[in-house]
Amino acid sequence: MTKPLSKTALFRADYNAKALARLNKALPEIFPRGVLVRAYARPYIPPMPRLAVDGYWRAHPLRADRLARALARKSGAPEGWTWRLTEKRKDGLPQTFRTPPAPYREKAFARGPGHCCVCGQPVYKLGWHKDLWGTGPSKTASWHSACVIAWRLWVAPSDFAPLLRKLQQRRCAGSGGRLWKTAEIDHRLPLFRVWREHRNLSWPDLLDHWGLPNLDVINRTVHVEKCATEAGYRAERRLLALASSE
């Protein structure tokens, strides 16, 4: 005797049937295969192509990070741009060195609708980074779907801790021991040092310090020791600066 489906299973089956019909009806003739495969495999199928694209990049933040940094290298920094901070929020300038430098978010260098404010490259249909459809850049979009997720990783890497822990095979990057539940995300090269010592690097090279190449998961005790060492380093630099100014 076949066991009857639960209410949840019936609801999901009904939802997915309707969502699949909507998705197939709205799909353009050309659509990224990887995105479509993931959409069909979801417990709840996204009903629109744009939702499928957004869901794909949310599921692959490290891939989004690599792509966003590669697109930034393709754009390069605009002529005359330098990494600057401001005390007041204006003209798109960051207020802290912890915010990734983003020249194309600044009013002076923004390329306007149809170009991504993170990497500077054209944004195409469905927030994609390539013109698969031959329709040219979007007239309104200002973010790639991938760059949205990459930006989230850069400004809030702790939100992606489970993925980063898995990537490190749940081993502490500092001690080599097993990661504890209290493990924290750390920038291998502290961002204050990036600002003080490396701010003249090219913009794409700067972005590497917010992306995966500079992210570690370390146990809290290791992190505390590292922070203490960094505090000593900063104090030493301040003393040297005072001594040289006398």
Helicity, in percent?
A: 40-55%
State the end-to-end distance. Answer: 91 Å
Number of helices, counting only DSSP H or I runs of 4 residues or more: 9
What general outline do the C-alpha atoms trace?
A: flat
On the 0-100 scale, what is the average pLDDT?
Answer: 93
* Weakly predicted, low-confidence segments: none
SSE diagram, text form:
Layout: H1 7-26, H2 33-41, H3 49-59, H4 61-75, H5 145-155, H6 161-167, E1 184-187, H7 191-197, H8 203-207, E2 215-218, H9 220-245
Antiparallel strand pairs: 1-2
Helix pairs in contact: 2-3, 4-5
Jot down its keywords:
mainly alpha; 45% helix; 246 residues; 3% strand; two-stranded antiparallel sheet
Question: Summary?
Answer:
The chain has 246 residues and is mostly helical. It is 45% helix and 3% strand. The chain folds into 2 domains: 1-59, no CATH class; 60-245, no CATH class.
Written overview of the protein:
The protein has two domains: 1-59, no CATH class; 60-245, no CATH class. It is mainly alpha-helical and 246 residues long. The chain has helices at 7-26, 33-41, 49-59, 61-75, 145-155, 161-167, 191-197, 203-207, 220-245, and strands spanning 184-187, 215-218. The protein is built from nine helices and two strands. Helix 2 packs across helix 3 (49-59) and helix 4 crosses helix 5. It has a two-stranded antiparallel sheet.
